[in-house]
Amino acid sequence: MTIEELYHTMAQEMGPQPWLRPGTLWAETPVEIMLGAILVQNTNWRNVEPSLINLKRETGFDPARLRQLSIEELLPLIQTSGFYHRKGAAILALADFLGTVDDDLDVLKRQDGASLRRDLLSITGIGNETADYILMYTLDYGTFMVDTYARRLFTWLGVTMPKTYPAFQKKVLPQFSLGLSDCQEFHALIDEFGKQVKSAADFDQSFLAGRKLTV
Question: How far is Cα 126 from Cα 138, in angstroms, rounded to an integer?
Fold first, then answer.
């Protein structure tokens, strides 16, 4: 099956998935989603939640108020997330980046997606996966995220993919013409499948057992 057939099969079998968006139970603002994407690197969401609570109390997720914090003031607020020196630098660099457009996300949304992605990757502490998450869930730019769950699923579906993130994504995107909401849904489906199907034995009992992907 093709990648788009995989998406539609998963959507039919698994149904609509919850995913982070402003104004939901998980996030109040786009900036909160951006900060969460940085803080969750190399940890789990349980460790991120106290950090976000602290940041909300001190800044209301306002980039201008974030820029007023010194690194010494910021670090204790995000300590529960681990790797907090690197993540603190990333948060302040992101706040500075948002300041270049007067914190107006609509200005960023009007920019070319590829150049916007390069701008995000130039920010300290933001790599491919975090940049794509920010693009897709806060800046309305659809793409394909290459995370651990996606790599594992493609392997189980009989595909040998490139090891690097850019090469993997580059191989997928030409066969991928889904709109923004479908891109978001596909990522959520892959991650939920990965949380439920944790081994090759589990996969052999799943609705995708015996299926092969063509990429």
Answer: 15
The residues, any chain, with a CB within 8 Å of residue 13's CB and separated by 6 or more, are: 207
DSSP string covering 151-187, please?
HHHHHHTT----SSHHHHHHHHGGG----HHHHHHHH
- Amino acid found at 23: G
As given in the structure block, the two tokens for residue 176 are 């991928």
pLDDT tens digits, 78-124: 999 999 999 999 999 999 999 999 999 999 999 999 999 999 999 98
DSSP state of 44: -
Predicted TM-score of the model (pTM): 0.90
* Fold adopted by 30-138: Endonuclease III; domain 1 (1.10.340)
3-18+143-203, what's its fold? Answer: Endonuclease Iii, domain 2 (1.10.1670)
Per-residue b or e along 134-160, where b marks 16 or more CB atoms closer than 10 Å to that residue's CB: bbbbbbbbbbbbbbebbbbbbebbebe
Q: Where are the domains of the chain?
A: 3-18+143-203, 30-138
